[in-house]
Design a protein that fits this description.
The chain is of the alpha/beta class and about 400 residues long. It is built from 16 helices and 16 strands. An eight-stranded parallel sheet has the order 6-7-8-9-10-11-12-13. A four-stranded mixed sheet has the order 3-2-1-4, with no helix packed on it. β9, α7 and β10 form a beta-alpha-beta unit. α6 packs parallel to α7, α8 runs parallel beside α9 and α12 packs across α13. The structure holds zinc ion (ZN).
């Protein structure tokens, strides 16, 4: 006997084929069974839900966000529209340093109150798992504060939050890059690790940020602690960071507009996920898209995320990212769907728990108001009236709204 059964549903199988007349059975918080609908199944469950052939997907996964920060940079958007470049704004004290300043000044509760509506906006889009990075502190006190806020967001909403230490997001004014990496390796990361605030370690490897030697040092330290690793790589130029991170066992390399063939081959060899971030590409008006055709050729798994951050991707809409990935990068609907479900789960090291509708997986799924999976990517700026089932239970979006007032 099952607790609950959702039947007459449309599901997408691993190959991307849409299957109609399927059913999902749930016991407690886990999926107990998935298969073709038969009339006799209805008697096997205490509660049943007729889905009328509407699409069910796993709860969506936003696998790359900078969700926790103070203030915003709308003023810089105005400056950019007046013709100033990203670099000119940074030199004028804007850019990431202004967010670091505001985030250092904000209390833990203020950060939580500012991040929570952003998380709620994501949940309203059907996202049930979110990765949250630190990286606007650039000192022990604020980096740990951001990670504690990420942990509190999980308790406040009941969603799954993965915490990524991105102390190496930028070089602080107080130190040079080498001394700062030493400080992160010897002081900040071990403290964050001891306090169980870190699931993975990330670094911004770029000609304007951290070089290959610094990247190797920090990621090697993370691996020695038994932590997963990730890398912001090849967003603005190719320095070979994705190849290095893949060789060290990275779960994912993210951005990748300028990745070389050599690094692509290393990512393929180590089964590292390519996380594509069309929001930043669009907002920065970039013109070199990531090499999707080559990624397909090498069999590299692609994930998609919002990169939610105040500087280069101020969005909470994973749905819009799916549309952009199709229109700007040329992904198919199937690729975009897999990019926010099973491949995003893999980018977070959660392949065995979430991102697929399979027996034994967490019963986090979304019942959409449409019968064609293509609608997931087709509309943009559209907020579908959907049902979230989290841990096998219907999740009330209204309860989140009242929770933040
Ligand atoms: Zn990022």
């Amino acid at each position: 006997m099952w607790d609950k059964l959702w039947y007459n549903a449309s599901l997408v199988d691993e190959s991307g084929t849409q299957l109609t007349n399927h059913a999902i059975a749930v016991n407690d918080s886990k999926i107990a069974w998935v298969g073709p609908m038969e009339e006799k199944l209805i008697g096997n469950a205490r509660k049943t839900h007729d889905c009328h052939q509407r699409v069910i997907t796993p709860g969506l996964i936003d696998c790359h966000t900078h969700l926790v920060y103070a203030g915003n940079r709308a003023n810089e958007f105005t400056m950019r529209l007046q013709g100033l470049t990203y670099a000119e704004i940074a030199q004028a004290g804007g850019g990431i340093k202004s967010t670091v300043k505001m985030t250092r000044l904000a209390s833990e509760d203020e950060l939580l109150q500012q991040a929570l509506p952003r998380l709620c906006a994501m949940i309203k889009q059907g996202v049930t798992t979110v990765e949250v990075k630190s990286g606007y502190g650039l000192n022990a006190c604020t980096e740990l504060k951001m990670l504690r806020v990420a942990k509190k967001l999980e308790n406040a909403t009941g969603m799954r939050i993965k915490k990524t230490f991105l102390g190496a997001h930028a070089i602080p004014d107080e130190m040079d890059a080498d001394s700062y990496i030493d400080y992160l390796c010897d002081d900040v990361l071990p403290h964050a690790y001891e306090q169980e605030l870190v699931d993975a370690v990330d670094i911004f490897s770029e000609s304007i940020a951290f070089n290959l030697a610094q990247t190797e040092k920090l990621l090697t330290k993370a691996v020695a602690l038994g932590l997963a690793i990730k890398c912001h790589a090849e967003q603005l130029s190719d320095i070979g960071a994705s190849g290095l991170a893949a060789s060290l066992g990275a779960l994912s390399c993210d951005h990748l507009e300028y990745i070389s063939d050599e690094s692509l081959q290393k990512m393929a060899m180590h089964d590292t996920v390519a996380v594509l971030l069309p929001g930043a590409y669009y907002f920065l008006k970039e013109t070199t898209p990531p090499p999707i055709t080559k990624m397909r050729k090498y069999g590299i798994k692609m994930a998609l995320a919002t990169d939610c951050n105040p500087g280069s991707s101020p969005t909470t809409s994973l749905s819009l990212m799916m549309n952009m990935a199709c229109t700007l990068f040329g992904l198919t609907v199937t690729e975009a769907y897999q990019a926010v479900t099973l491949n995003a789960a893999k980018a977070l090291g959660l392949s065995k728990d979430i991102g697929q509708l399979k027996a034994g997986f967490h019963a986090d799924f979304i019942l959409w108001p449409f019968t064609d999976i293509a609608e997931l990517c087709y509309g943009f700026g559209v907020d579908y009236d959907k049902q979230l089932i989290v841990g096998g239970t219907l999740f009330s979006l209204d309860s989140i709204d009242s929770g933040i007032k």
